[in-house]
Structures are given as C-alpha cells and as structure tokens.
Amino acid sequence: MTKPNAGDRIVFMGTPDFAVPCLKGLMEAGYQVVGVVTQPDRPKGRKRVLTPPPVKEAALAYHLPVLQPEKIRTAYEEVLALEPDLIVTAAYGQILPVSLLEQPKHGAINVHASLLPAYRGAAPIQYAIMNGDEETGVTIMYMEQGLDTGDMIAKVAMPIQADDDAGTLFDKLSAAGASLLLETLPRLLAGEITAVPQNDEDATYARTLKRDDERLDWERKSKQLHDQVRAMSPWPGAFTTYQGDGFKVWKTRMPAASEMENWPWQQAQVGEVVAASAVGMAVRTGDGVLVLEEIQPAGKKRMTVQAYLAGKGIQVGERFGGVAE
C-alpha cells in the first residue's frame, strides 16, 4: 500500500457500527483524520438512556474532534472549518449539501453496502436478503446531490450465504468496505482513479424500513417469509400476531420435503400451526410450510420454540393472525 500523504486532511462522517472499521482503518493506516462528524446522541433502550453513536465512541478513543450537528445542511461551515482535502462517509445518515461536497480538493466519497446502482438508499443489506439475492457487496462512489447516484470508484462483491441474516452480512460488508477503502485511497489521492457513471436505468432503491416491512403475511411463499425473517434479524424483528398480541419471529428454516410429508399441511389454513415439537413450530404458508425456531411472544424475552412449547404456548391447529395494532 502506498504511504498516506501526510498533507491530505480527511474528515470522516459516519454513525453506526458499520462505519467504525472504516474510521479505525484510516487511523491505523496513518491517514490524517482531522475530525469526525456523526449524528447526535440518542435515547436508547427501555430506559431511554442517552447513548452516543458507535462512531463517536471510536473517534473519542482516538482523541479526535467530534461534531454532532442535528442537521448537517445548517452546520456544514463547521465541517469546512476543518479544511478537509477529502471527506469520507459511511452510513452517516444525512444527505450532504452541495456547498460541502464541492469544497475538498479530492471531493467526497461514500462507502455504500450494495453493488450500485442496486439498492440505493438507507437499507441495502436488508433488501438484498429480503429479495432473495445470492450476491451483494460494497461500492465506493463520489458523492453528489442525488441519493447514492455518484460515479463509482471501486466495488467488491460478496456472496450471501444461506445462513446469513442482516447482522452477519452487516459485519461482513463492514469489514469489506474498510478493506476496499484502504485499497482505493492511495490511487484516489494520487489522482489515478477513473470513476464510472452509474446506469440510472438499472437503479433500485432500498428505502427506510417501515413497520409493514416487518409484518409476516402467511399468504406469501415460505422462501419469501424465511428471507424476510433473516432480513429483519437482529433488528427490528419480523412479527405476526397471536390472540391479538404481537409475536416476533427471529429465526426460521425451510423444511425438507420428506419432513413435510409427516404434517397435514395441505388441509390447513395459512398461518395455522401444523406441527409443534422438538424440531420447531411448522406454520402453513401460501405454498407450503415454514418452521419457526426462535420467537418472542408479547411481553417475553426471545426464546427457542422448544422453551416456548414447554410453557404450553400455541398449539397445533391454532392460527397466527394479521397486523398488531
């Protein structure tokens, strides 16, 4: 790797755990990070304890100055006062104003968790899993006024494994993004990058997740429901209802055809429990059966289906319902 240019001043902008490896990588590689911009501290948990974002905690560990504007568009001059030659962002969470993007001599770049132009937007990891994709990756691009529309600098692809959920894929892509950033920066700062425009006709969008994205519609196919559960774990969690209360589903599996032969699923209604035993809880779907393995009834902690059934719980022949109010 080319030795970092000590004269290039970098401002890093990011918020969640996904961005932390990028910041740490810059510091450990010897780049001159002159400041970090992140979201304000937010209340967290049931007790609503004011909690700093992970990037702030990492920045303070390196004794870096931290800015936490509520709205970057009204505070961009504070960032420009740091005199950055390059702005690096990773899951910052706000759109940067053009007046900020245009000032650094090397521009502003973003580490995005998808193979652009697929899944522009806030939740690319969740949508890739939810849509049953076999591959995703990381793209580094120049930032511009549009939402993840800038010219692409570098990409790395990664398979989505059958046992991946949003949490495991988040960790893999976070590490891959940091590695790609460190591979790309020397050439970028040396002016050796030829960026490639995105094809807007191929663009798809991963909008912010809504409550309805978490709801399990048992009319859907088993594989679609299984991928939805994976996409919503470990946050915010997919859900159904039982006796009018919310009922979260954290882990599922697709049963083998030989296993399904032992269950009377073809005569059951969608959402009906057709088996409940040590192998899990089998629920009728639009095209077959999905087995629930880890769940969370209303007012309870996350648990295995076996633990739930030991306390009686839902029985064969009962049915999960629709949206909790």
Describe this structure in words.
- The structure is a single chain.
- It is elongated and about 70 Å long.
- The chain has helices spanning 20-28, 54-61, 76-80, 98-101, 124-130, 166-189, 211-214, 222-231, 257-260, 305-310; strands at residues 9-14, 32-37, 42-44, 49-51, 66-67, 86-90, 108-112, 120-121, 135-142, 152-159, 205-206, 238-242, 245-253, 273-277, 280-284, 289-297, 303-304.
- Helix content is 25%, strand content 26%.
- The chain has 2 domains: 9-206, 3-Layer(aba) Sandwich (Rossmann fold); 212-310, Formyl transferase, C-terminal domain (Methionyl-tRNA Fmet Formyltransferase, Chain A, domain 2), CATH 3.10.25.
- A hairpin with a 4-residue loop joins strand 15 and strand 16 (289-297).
- It is of the alpha/beta class.
- The strands form 4 sheets. A 7-stranded mixed β-sheet has the order 5-2-1-6-7-9-10.
- The mean pLDDT is 95.
- It catalyses: L-methionyl-tRNA(fMet) + (6R)-10-formyltetrahydrofolate = N-formyl-L-methionyl-tRNA(fMet) + (6S)-5,6,7,8-tetrahydrofolate + H(+).
**Counting H and I runs of at least 4 residues, what is the number of helices?**
10
Strand order in the largest sheet: 5-2-1-6-7-9-10
- Give me the count of strands: 17
Low-confidence stretches: none
Proportion of strand residues: 25-35%
Shape: elongated
What CATH architecture label of the largest domain applies?
Answer: 3-Layer(aba) Sandwich
How many individual domains?
A: 2
Rounded mean pLDDT score:
95
- How far apart are the termini? 55 Å
CATH class of the largest domain: Alpha Beta
Which percent range fits the helix content? 10-25%
How is the biggest beta sheet arranged? Answer: 7 strands, mixed
Order of helical and strand elements:
EHEEEHEHEHEEHEEHEHHEEHEEEEH
CATH superfamily of the largest domain: Formyl transferase, N-terminal domain
- Could you say what the CATH topology of the largest domain is called? Rossmann fold
InterPro entries: Fmt, Formyl_trans_C, Formyl_transf_N, Formyl_transf_N_sf, Formyl_transferase-like_C_sf, Met-tRNA-FMT_C, Met-tRNA-FMT_N
Protein name: Methionyl-tRNA formyltransferase
Domain Formyl transferase N-terminal: 9-184
Family: Belongs to the Fmt family.
